[in-house]
Amino acid sequence: MIPGNFLSATTEQVDPNTSGWLAKLNATISLGSGGRNGDGVLAVKSASAGEMQARTYSSYPVVTGTVYSAFADASGATVPERIGIRWLNAAGAEISITWGLTTATASTSWHRISVGGVAPALAARAQVVLSSTPVAAAVISYYENVYFGWPLRFAGNLLSFNAEQYEIDTTGWAAETNCTLSRTAPMVQWPVDWYYSGGEVVTLTVAATGNASALCTERPPVTAGVEYLAYGYLMPPTSAAVTWIELRFYDAGGAQLSATRSTLAAPGTGGYRQIASAIAPAGAATASMAMGITSGTAAQALRADGLVIKVRTATVTGSAPNDNVVAFADSNFEQGIGQWTVPSGVATIARSTPWGGQAVSNSYSLTVTSSTATVSTIRSGKYPVAQLLNWKPNVSLKRIAGGWTAGISMRFYDAADALITTISSVAGALPPDGLWYRFDADMTAPAGAVTGQIDLVLTATTTSSTVQIDDVRLQQVLPSTQVTGSDDTASILLILRGLSTAHLMTIYRVLPDGSRSLVRGRGGLISQSPITADTFSVEDYEAPLGVPVVYRIEYYVAATALLTAWRVTTAVTLDPGDINYCWLKDPARPQLNVRAMVRSAPEWSEPIEQNAMRVRGRANALILSGVRGGREGSLIAWTESDTQREALRLLLSAGSILLWQAAPGMGESDVYVSVAEAAFPRVTDYAPEPWREWTLPLTEQDAPVTGIAGSATWTVQDVLVENTTVLGLVSRYATVLDLALDQRTA
């Protein structure tokens, strides 16, 4: 269903029948096929030469003086079509019909016809009318995807519907220089689910060879210091024509203060959204927009539709507030390279070309080219930041040629524009697969910081290397990755934010020697595991003691399992405390983990099965060996209280594979073990003696693959981090006890 459509689904889609329609004039109707909004289409066949019409079976309530819109997709090999709104009074009698323009040509391709109109005096209801004028009988026009209702507007547009889509009359725009202006209805094709552009467009026709321009007649109020966008869908006369959109600001007296132009690099003669952006200067009171052609030829026509002036939002066509402090021109490169410079290195920068050729956001990106295998820094403008808050610079990069590694740095400045500090991220290599990758980092603005500047440190690893940059962001957010060590539980809490459910995720624990091991989650080892929410947390109880640990998080496209992005956390080190103590942990049930005093470490042996065969006349025996086994030995440990003794008994009771961890100074590496029959006599003959001496026969085992059931530190705060509503808790935990132990059922 088209959003806000007054028509029923059957009338809109002409599925599964034509019950929403009636023949009105010189026509019969039937159900055709081959539609895009459902298979069915309305086939209107002429009874004789002359105009034929079909209308909606029902009429729909309207309010006098209110603007309404209607559109449909049409197809016909013989005659062009038009659409109208038929106004009825309270008694159902026709008052008038507001007609849209007839399309310039006939076409069997689906094309848009549209109309806008103000409900006249005494109008109480309205119908949609479809019309074409064949010159013979049995000529068929086809229609589908029909809409009637309030005008569908681009979110936040400060211009009227008539200035945006030019559907009512010619008052929204006026000729400015060397042109005439008109409403025309070229055969315009839009996607079936694109509802913000019609079939009628504003058309600038060049009067004489030279520059030509048209200006919107409306001047909506603006606020100085606020960033605005102006955009429209330009349809140039040729791909070589130099056409543009311009955003202009005026003071309270109507004097123009500034004009920002964005020139289209057209790949053809279709409709291309071109965007201009600027911050309203001091003294700005109103804004307007212009469009034009540079060095045009007489009679050339520039057409435009979907014309918008709006406050910058999170997306060009959306309404969500913008949280990116990078200026739009510097973030999306729609009108050039913005404030970006190359303060060091041989790289050159330019806006990509043509429109739509290289972009991950909107239609252009920044092309960086290095002629040599050297390092270059690409530097942004300066943007406002708040001190002591976490800021995330992030950027999309795509390798085009050669090889590249990339890193992000933030330069923070004080109120006097003096550099306070520079914070840099870990650099990473861009994969050679030609896909877009997102690079980001978390950085805390230092005390006194008022502005921040992004440096992209790009290293070309071969000559003639090219990389694209797009969608540059600097946002004040909670850290995307957060690691916190807990010495009391010998665990590290990892929190990830800003996740996408379209991805799979792998989490590695990385040690200083570069070795990696998978982190254990609730479902087992986290390896290309589905992401079910935008926030994820896991407690790692298997991180080594006294060793710096970082985590590498990799994201894969769920549909293809291709690596698309990764993050690396800062390092965190768990303090092992007293060297005489060790940990015995159950990887699956960390709430049972126990810390105990070591009396003596195991005297390890590594058993092996061997057969010796002594051959007559040969001095050395022939030895047949199996595979040498893992370590075996007995750990002797002390528990110091009844509580600690019972905790160790509970840990051992299930016979699960355990992880034994000793402090680095003990000279023992972490090892997964099974524990055989354990003895734990008193350390003295005194009956109330609480101390026990445990002899634990250990046999080395492979790491288990089971998931974590519960948490040793599960708190209400953890519940709040991972669950947005109480209903979410109900679906995840079967009982209150399950919630207390963090033992999930979903």
Folded structure, characterized:
This protein is mostly beta strands and 746 residues long. 6% of the residues lie in helices and 45% in strands. The protein is built from seven helices and 51 strands. A hairpin with a 5-residue loop joins strand 17 (242-250) and strand 18.
Please estimate the helix content.
Answer: under 10%
- Report the portion of residues in β strands: over 45%
Low confidence ranges: none
Terminus-to-terminus distance:
33 Å
User: Biggest β-sheet, characterized?
Assistant: 6 strands, antiparallel
Structural key phrases:
mainly beta, six-stranded antiparallel β-sheet, 746 residues, 45% strand, 7 helices
What can be said about this structure in brief?
The protein is mainly beta.
Map the helices and strands.
Layout: H1 9-13, E1 21-25, E2 27-32, E3 41-46, E4 52-56, E5 60-61, E6 67-76, E7 81-88, E8 94-99, E9 107-118, E10 125-132, E11 140-149, H2 161-165, E12 173-177, E13 179-184, E14 201-206, E15 210-216, E16 227-235, E17 242-250, E18 256-263, E19 272-279, E20 286-296, E21 301-311, H3 328-332, E22 341-344, E23 348-351, E24 366-370, E25 375-384, E26 390-401, E27 404-413, E28 419-424, E29 428-429, E30 436-440, E31 443-444, E32 451-460, E33 465-476, E34 481-486, E35 491-497, E36 503-510, E37 516-518, E38 520-521, E39 524-525, E40 529-530, E41 535-540, E42 550-557, E43 563-568, E44 581-585, E45 594-600, E46 610-613, E47 622-625, E48 632-639, H4 642-653, E49 658-662, E50 671-675, E51 692-700, H5 716-722, H6 726-732, H7 736-741
Antiparallel strand pairs: 1-4, 2-3, 3-11, 4-10, 5-10, 6-9, 6-11, 7-8, 7-10, 12-15, 13-14, 14-21, 15-20, 16-19, 16-21, 17-18, 17-20, 22-25, 23-24, 24-33, 25-32, 26-30, 26-31, 26-33, 27-28, 27-29, 27-32, 34-35, 35-41, 36-37, 36-40, 36-42, 38-39, 42-43, 44-45, 44-49, 45-48, 46-47, 48-51, 49-50, ...
